[in-house]
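Sharing a chain and its predicted structure for anyone who wants a worked example. Both blocks are below, sequence first, C-alpha cells second.
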Amino acid sequence: MTHTDPHASSLLRGRVLAFAAILLAALNLRTAVTSVTPLLDLLGQTFGFGTTMTGVLGMLPTASFALFGVTTPMVARRIGLERTALLAMGLATVGLLLRSMAGGIGSLLFGSIVALAGMGIGNVVVPPLVKRYFANRVGTVSTLYITVLQIGTMMPALLAVPLAQSAGWRVSLGIWSILALAAALPWMMLARRRPHPDPLDTAADPSAQPHGKVWRTPLGWGMTLMFGMTSLMTYSMFTWLPRIVVEAGATPAFGGIMVAIFAACGLLPSLTMPALAVRLRNPFPLVLIGFSAFLIAFAGLLFAPMKAPWLWAILLGVGPSTFPLALTLINLRTRTPAGSAALSGFMQGVGYAFSCLGPFLFGWLHEMSGGWHLPFGFLVVCAVVLLTASWVACKPQKLEDQW
C-alpha cells in the first residue's frame, strides 16, 4: 500500500491551479484594447467624436498600462502577488461591463480606464508569478502565456465588427467581461491558499527584497526602451491600421481583418521567442528579425498599401517579436520573484508611458501633414531606438548584480 505525501499533493494542486490562473489571466490582458479599435468609427458616429478622441482612445491603453505598471510592484508587496492578480481580473470584469453600458463619451472613457487598470496590473504581476510557481520552466510557461495573450488580442479584433452588426456594439464590447470573471475564480482560490502577509513579498524574506532602484541600471533602461518602442509601434498600428487601409480604398470590415491578421501573426514569435531566448546567451540576433519586419511593413503600407495588404499585416505581426522576448528576459535577467516584479513594473510602467505617445503623435503628424510620410518616418526613428536599446538589454547580466 503506497502513501502519498499530502504536502507534495497540495503543492502539485497549487501549481496546476496557478498554471490555469496564469493562462486565463493572459487571455484577458488585451481584450479591452482590440475589442474597441475596430468599432471606433461606429462609436464616433454614436457619441459624436472625431480624430482627436480616436487618438485619445488609442492612447488610453498604454497610458493606463504605464500608470498601473509603475504602481503594481508596491501593491504586490503590500497584498501579495496572488491577491494583486485577483484585483486585476476584478477590475477588468467591472470595467468591461461599465464600458458596454456607456451613455456617452465620459462613461465610455471611465469604463475603459477601469478595465485597462486591471489589465495594466495583470501585465506586471504575471511574469513574477511565472517565476514563483515555475522557476524551472520559465521558457515553456512564458511561451504558453504569451501565446494565450496573443490569442486574447486577436479574438476581439476578429469578432468586434460581426458581433456589433448582429447583436449591437454593447454586446460586442461587454461579452469579454465573462472571460475576465472566469479568470478571477482561480486567483480567488490561490489567494486563499497563500499566507498573508506573504513571506515572499515582504521583509520576512530579506533575500527576496529589491536592494536598489531599477532606474539606476543600464539593464533597466535597455529593457524599458526595447519594450516601450515595441509597444509604441504596435499600438500606433492597432489604432491607425484600419484608417490607413480604408483611406487606401478598403472597407471598415477589411480594416478589422487587417488588425486580426496583425495580431494573429504575433502568435509565431510568441511560440518561438521565449524558447529561443532561454537557449541563447545573447538573443540580440532575434531583435534584427523584428526590426527588419517592421521596416518592410512600414514601407509597404506607405508606398503600396493595397498592393499586398496581407503581406504588410503579416510582417507587422512579426515586428513586435521583441515583445515576447522582453517579457521572457524579465525572468532571465533577474534572480528572485521580487527582482522580477521590480524589473517588470519599471519596464512596463515607463515603457508604456513612452508608447502611449505613439497613437497620438502618429495621428497628429498625419493631421498636420495631410499624409502618412511623417507618421511613418517617426516610427522608423522609434525602430532605431529599439535596436540600440535591445543591444544593452540582450547582454548576459542579472539585475541584482547591478544593484
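Comments welcome. Confidence is low (pLDDT under 50) at residues 199-210.
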